[in-house]
Design a protein that fits this description.
Strand order of the largest sheet: 3-2-1-4-5-6
Largest sheet: 6 strands, parallel
Number of strands: 8
Structural class: alpha/beta
Distance between the termini: 20 Å
Low-confidence stretches: none
CATH topology: Rossmann fold
Mean pLDDT: 92
Length: about 220
């Protein structure tokens, strides 16, 4: 992979994917709507000659088309606020998939595991999708949109992460716990202490995501 674009590059997963791609010598276009955040990202990477940025609106596919024209792979890391998911998530999916279809690009969608619903055992990518929450049901519709037959030229894959943590993920459930521990202070934990939960360290997840994106056989799958 010589060149990639990361949509939502200043978010938690976007930042680590940018870093992972740069570590492999890939030329990266960081795409977002905040010039100040994108410029801060540039400074964090010492104005790397392999990193550039483009300002645009994730809901305006034409701005993404212009930015992504020379990229081999599109990494979709942008998200919508929880309270706006029902009204905006499918519009976001339509925009990024329309871009990938127009340009005939590979696109990697970073998403969660809500669509699997209640789990009683460890699952793999073939685990049945039985969402029992509104958020899970919306995410299931989002997946159907991503893999819709109407996209003739785009090649999409979805990478599903459990809850995650890391320096770039200050809004994750586990981060307040870790921040308190790091400061040697009394801390908090969101949720009960009995239910087993799975967490992934975001920089590790970025390595896996890029590895998966490099393989042609990954596309069309979760």
């Amino acid at each position: 992979m010589k060149k990639a674009i990361v949509l939502g590059a200043t978010g938690g997963s976007g930042q680590v994917i940018v870093s992972e791609l740069l570590s492999r010598g890939t030329e990266v276009i960081a795409f977002g709507r905040s010039r100040s955040k994108l410029e801060h990202l540039m400074k964090e990477h010492d104005h790397s000659q392999h990193l550039s940025y483009r300002i645009g609106d994730i809901f305006d596919y034409q701005t993404i088309v212009e930015a992504a024209e020379d990229a081999e792979v599109i990494f979709q890391c942008a998200n919508v606020p929880y309270q706006e998911m029902a009204s905006k998530l499918l519009s976001l999916g339509e925009s990024v998939m329309k871009t990938a279809d127009i340009l005939g690009k590979k696109i990697v969608i970073v998403d969660g595991i809500y669509i699997y619903g209640h789990q009683v055992a460890k699952g793999d990518e073939n685990h049945p999708k039985q969402p029992h929450t509104k958020k899970g049901q919306i995410r299931f519709e989002f997946e159907k949109l991503i893999f819709s037959q109407k996209w003739k030229n785009a090649k999409a894959l979805i990478v599903r992460l459990p809850d995650y943590y890391g320096a770039t993920s200050q809004n994750s459930y586990l981060q307040p716990t870790l921040n308190g521990l790091a400061a040697n202070k009394t801390t908090v934990f969101i949720g009960d202490l009995i239910t087993p939960r799975e967490y992934v360290y975001l920089p590790d997840a970025a390595k896996m995501i890029v590895e998966i994106a490099e393989k042609d056989e990954s596309y069309g799958e979760n």
